[in-house]
Amino acid sequence: MTDKPRVWVSRPTFPGVIARLEPHFEVTVEDTERKLGPSELAARLARQDAVIVGLKDRIGAAEVGAAERLRIVANLAVGYDNIDVDAMSAAGIAVSNTADVLNESVADYAWALLLGAARRMTAAERWLRAGHWHATEFKAWLGSDVRGRTLGILGMGRIGQAIAHRAVGFGMPVIYHNRSPLPEAVERACHARHVDKAQLLGESDFLVLALPLTPRTRHAVGAPELALMKPTALLINIARGGIVDDAALAAALRDRRLAGAALDVFEGEPKLHPALLTLDNVVLSPHIASATTETRRAMTSVAVDNVLALFGHGPHAGRPPNIVNPNVL
Ligand code: DGY
């Protein structure tokens, strides 16, 4: 035992990056990826001065009830709907996220999903792997072009903007909806036009969701919103499960009231709505939009920087850069 403060890292990540904590902290890293139950998690947190956690760790008042030494929960994600920020603030615990370093990777992945869904890539691959390719009909596997079609973005934060920038190369007009329009200069740089939500739903050929999950955005796209979309449209969700009502989406996809979808996130993940698994007009992936080596390493580095900074070390000593509840500092 040492008298250094203690940091617990809830999931295996990049040891070379975590090593930056070692001169200042006693560091414990979980060596396997597993979800701890609430009481196991509370027991882990009780002994720590800082923790680096992931989306699978749901942390609220109960989990930090005995965590008297805990000063920071550094989340390995930009979204932090797994953490009850009000409860952390009430307990005087800072919460940090990994904003910005993942914008470009997530935007790339949104486009990978969009293009994959438009060209039916994963369904075609399944067909090929199943040994069905004896001859391909001229009119088999017809997808839809993206060029010139309208890209809609719901949630035009930094990730939404990075997605919009990429639309220029595809010659796509971009419309978006946010609670408030972006400053004109930012809109111009994104070649994007603010519209109301009904217009966004009704005019988008490809609708990408890039908004955080909050009580207000839960089921922001449910049956009534899906009914406003074109039957030829595709829905892409790289934001969070729960923003879409997955049961309503599965029904719309099954009945071809919506042409297709591409989903990286799911309500109740890692469980999926079973109907989604049976449909061929949906591309599915296991919440990997930020999963590149470079970006996951950078996310780890941001979490480490925030922990170091809160304890007065590292490049941002005393000024942790990504605190989402700065009132506690
Ligand atoms: C995030 O950072 O919020 C992503 O969804 C996790 O990869």
TrEMBL record:
<dbReference type="GO" id="GO:0016618">
    <property type="term" value="F:hydroxypyruvate reductase [NAD(P)H] activity"/>
</dbReference>
<keyword id="KW-0520">NAD</keyword>
<comment type="similarity">
    <text>Belongs to the D-isomer specific 2-hydroxyacid dehydrogenase family.</text>
</comment>
<dbReference type="GO" id="GO:0051287">
    <property type="term" value="F:NAD binding"/>
</dbReference>
<keyword id="KW-0560">Oxidoreductase</keyword>
<dbReference type="Pfam" id="PF00389">
    <property type="entry name" value="2-Hacid_dh"/>
</dbReference>
<dbReference type="InterPro" id="IPR036291">
    <property type="entry name" value="NAD(P)-bd_dom_sf"/>
</dbReference>
<feature type="domain" description="D-isomer specific 2-hydroxyacid dehydrogenase NAD-binding">
    <location>
        <begin position="112"/>
        <end position="289"/>
    </location>
</feature>
<protein>
    <submittedName>
        <fullName>D-glycerate dehydrogenase</fullName>
    </submittedName>
</protein>
<dbReference type="GO" id="GO:0030267">
    <property type="term" value="F:glyoxylate reductase (NADPH) activity"/>
</dbReference>
<dbReference type="InterPro" id="IPR029752">
    <property type="entry name" value="D-isomer_DH_CS1"/>
</dbReference>
<dbReference type="GO" id="GO:0005829">
    <property type="term" value="C:cytosol"/>
</dbReference>
<feature type="domain" description="D-isomer specific 2-hydroxyacid dehydrogenase catalytic">
    <location>
        <begin position="17"/>
        <end position="324"/>
    </location>
</feature>
<dbReference type="Pfam" id="PF02826">
    <property type="entry name" value="2-Hacid_dh_C"/>
</dbReference>
<dbReference type="InterPro" id="IPR006139">
    <property type="entry name" value="D-isomer_2_OHA_DH_cat_dom"/>
</dbReference>
<dbReference type="InterPro" id="IPR050223">
    <property type="entry name" value="D-isomer_2-hydroxyacid_DH"/>
</dbReference>
<dbReference type="InterPro" id="IPR029753">
    <property type="entry name" value="D-isomer_DH_CS"/>
</dbReference>
<dbReference type="InterPro" id="IPR006140">
    <property type="entry name" value="D-isomer_DH_NAD-bd"/>
</dbReference>
